[in-house]
Amino acid sequence: MPQTSEFLLTPQLRARWMRFDTAQLLKRFFFCERSLLISEAAWIPAIAPLEIKTSLARFIWQSSETANALRERVFELRFPSRLLEQEGTDHSLIRLFDAVKDSPSVAAFLLSVGRVLLPALRDAYASYLQASDSIADGPTHRFLALALAEKAEQVGAFEQWIEPAFLESPESRPGAVAWREVVAERLLQAGGVGVGPAGPPEAAGPLPGAKSYSIPRHPARDQRFWPCRFYWPDIVDPGYPYGEGMQLQLRSAISHVNEVWAIEAGGVMLSAFADLLPWEWIHDSARWTYDESRHCRMGYERLLSWGFCPAEIPLGTYIYESATTGDAADIPTDLLGMLFFFETKNIRHKPERARRFHAYGDSLSEHDMDFDWADETLHAGYGKRWLKQLLAVRGQDPGDYDEVRERCEKLVKDYVRTSTPKEIADLKEASQVLLNKAREMK
After folding, report:
1. Mean pLDDT of 96-108
2. DSSP letters of 85-154?
3. What average pLDDT does the structure give for the chain?
4. How many CB atoms lie within 10 A of CB 432?
C-alpha cells in the first residue's frame, strides 16, 4: 500500500540539483573554459593560416566571456569564493585540459581540441541546459545557451582546419592521431566533463608523446602571402614617405593586416601570465587579443575588396621578433611592453587619418580607423594597468612600467637596423607593385 504524507509532495525533475550542486558544476565549466582558452592563446604564433589565427582569437574571447559569466554566477550562488581558486574534485579533468598545451604538433593540437575537448564541453553544456532548472537557474540558461551555440561553431571550425593541417605536414598525422586517442582515453578516465559526479581524484602522469610547450621565437606565416620581416619601406627607410591619398589608404590597410603580430603577442602574454596575475588579466587580455584580430581582418578585407590577392600582400614578422631576441624568460614581458609601446605610439595619428579618409570619400577606411581608435584607447589603459601590476607582483616598482615601454622601443630600433640592402630593395619593389596596381584600379 502506498504511504500517504501529511505534506504536499510533487516529484519535479527541475529540483534535481540544489544551489551548491549547481555551483559545483558551473565551477567545473569555468575551469575547463579557462584552461582551454589559455592553451588556444599559446598556440596562435605557431599556427600559420591567417584565418585560424584570427578565429582562435575570437574563440578565446568567447571562452573568456563564458568563463567570466560562469565565475560571476558561481559567486551569486554563494559558493565559497576561496574555493574558486582551485579545481577541487575536478583536478584530474582540468589537468587533462591543461595538458593539450603540450601537444606535439599543430595537427595534434587541432585534433585533440577539435575532436575531443570542444565536443565534450559542447555536450556538457547541452546536458546541463536540458537537465537544470530554467526557473531557479534562469540566469545561467541565458549565457550558457549562447555558449552552447558558440561551442558548436568552434567545433565546426576546428573540423575544417584539421585536414589542411595534415596536408601541410603529412608526417605529423600518425603522432597526432595517437595524441588524440590518448587525450580521449584520459578524458574518459577522468570522468569526462558532463554533469555527473567528478571522476577519480588521482592525477594521471604526463601524456605519452607530449612536447613541452615553448614560446615560438619566429611566428608561423601564411604561405599565401608575400613573406618578409618588414612590411613597408618607411619602417626601414626614414626617407620613404608614409604617404597621402591612395598611398595612405594602402599603407593603412597593410598596417592593419600586419597587426597579426599583435594577435600573436596577445596570445603569448595571456598564456604566460595566466597563473601569475588574477582572472581579470585573462579576461582583459582575451579581449585585447580579439580586438587585434578584428583590426587584422579590417585591413585584409579592405585589400581584398580593392582587388588585391594575398600573394601581393606583405605579411611581416619584425615587431614580434623584436620582442623575442632576448632571454626566453623576458619574452612575455617584452611582448606586453611591445603592445603597450605601439598602442601609445600610434593612437594620436588615428583620428586625423580617419578625417583624411572621410575627405577621400573612403568610408570603409574611415570606419575601420574610427573603431580602431576606440579600441586602442582601451588597450593603452590595459597596457599601463597590467604592466604596473606585473611589476608589483614581481616585487618591482610599478612606476617603472614606462621603462618597459622604452626598452621595447629600443628593441624595435635595434631589430630594424638588421635590415639588409636586399630586403629594403625587395620591399620597395613590392610596395611599388601594389601602388601601381592601385593606380590602375582607379
Report:
1. 97
2. GS-GGGHHHHHHHHHGGG-SSHHHHHHHIIIIIHHHHHHHHHHHHHHS-TTTTHHHHHHHHHHHHHHHHH
3. 93
4. 11
User: Residue 379 in contact with residue 291, Cβ under 8 Å?
Assistant: yes
pLDDT at 1: 46
The 3-state DSSP class for residue 319 equals helix
- Stated pTM of the model: 0.94
* Rounded CA separation 192/198 (Å): 8
Residue 185 in grid coordinates: 582515453
The DSSP code sequence of 347-374 is GGGHHHHHHHHHHHT-HHHHHHHHHHHH
Furthest C-alpha separation in the chain:
98
The answer for residues whose C-beta is within 8 angstroms of residue 82's C-beta and 6 or more apart is none
Q: Looking up cell 504524507, which residue turns up?
A: 5
Task: Please compute the mean of the pLDDT values over residues 79-97 and round it to a whole number.
Answer: 77
Q: What is the pLDDT of residue 81?
A: 62
Q: What is the mean pLDDT of residues 283-297?
A: 98
**pLDDT tens-digit map of 158-184:** 999 999 999 999 999 999 999 999 999
Q: Residue 220: which of 285, 162, 268 has the closest Cα?
A: 268
- Identity of the amino acid at 379: H
**Per-residue pLDDT at 198:** 80
Say yes or no to pLDDT of 127 above 70.
Answer: yes
d(CA 379, CA 345): 12
> Amino acid letter at 154?
Q
- CA-based nearest residue to 323, from 214, 212, 213, 218: 218
Distances (CA, A) of 372 to 231, 269, 303: 20, 21, 17
Task: Give the tens place of pLDDT for each residue, 228-237.
Answer: 999 999 999 9
CA–CA dist 225, 310 (Å, integer): 5
CA distances from 28 to 88, 177, 364 (A): 9, 27, 43
Q: Which three cell numbers stand for residue 110?
A: 587541432
Q: Per-residue confidence at 30, pLDDT binned at 50, 70, 90?
A: very high
Angle at 366 between CA 362 and CA 369, to 5 degrees: 145
Distance of CA 176 to the CA centre of its chain: 22
What integer is the mean pLDDT of 38-63?
Answer: 98
For residues 136 and 288, give the distance between their C-alpha atoms in angstroms, rounded to a whole number: 34
Supply the pLDDT for residue 163. 95
Residue with cell 593603452: 380
**DSSP H or E stretch at residue 314:** strand 314-315
Between CA 250 and CA 220, with CA 257 as vertex, the angle to 5 degrees is 135
